[in-house]
Amino acid sequence: MKIAISGKGGVGKTTIMALLASQMKRAGKDVLIIDADPSPHMAQTIGIKNVEDIVPIAEMTALLVERSGKTPGSPFYQINPKVDDLIKRFMVEEDGLRLMVLGAIQVGEGGCACPENTVLKRLLTMLLLSESQVILLDMEAGVEHLGRGTIAGVDHLLVVVNPTRSSARTALKIKKLARDVKIPKISFVGNLVQNEEDEAFLARELGEPVLASFPELADIRRAEREGVPVTRFSDQCADITARLVEKLLLKDAAT
Q1: Average pLDDT of adjacent 10-residue blocks, the chain of 255 residues
Q2: Which CATH architecture has domain 2-49+97-103+132-253?
Q3: What kind and span of H or E run contains 138?
């Protein structure tokens, strides 16, 4: 199963993804997280040690140019560069969770054939097409990534939304664009939801109920501020996350 997560900046998508990854691992899944946010924070969120030693693939300029097969003096790049060995070389692991940091994908599909775009899209496509593990893809905030081919092959897009009008508007725009690129399943996940009034507001604004609602937890907020892995406090919302995982697995089995 391949799950991507998106949403307006600051809604808590990385936190939700980390909690989801922790619960997937508890459910016996082999979890690989891909941090495709240009401002990556997943390593700190799940407690990867020596974060400063992680080198995003997008920063490996010389390697990217080499793998893209660019002929000196030519403006063209190889469409399908060899990338399979990059998986192990750029993957780190902590407490049973594996992570790859792709780094910034700065350009869209509007005619640019830069080596970063070529290699990263190829790598991501290969990983997303693998059926041997659960792949969780933490996308950049907003809607720009939906105009790129990097999200192709995702089974389910989770759009994280807070109970505010601006967050709901962005979530609806993301859903529309996700439909345009043929993502088969799209669901909303509420965050910072305090009560039934918040849930009713989201259902009204989104036109459907959220798949799960996470409350604002002081310990998780404090963990983010202090650089402590939020997964340490996953027990506080384990029931919510477990139900979310169950729903995701049922939806995947139904297709």
Answers
A1: 88 92 90 81 85 76 71 61 73 85 55 55 62 79 60 84 96 90 91 95 97 90 81 86 90 64
A2: 3-Layer(aba) Sandwich (3.40)
A3: strand 134-138
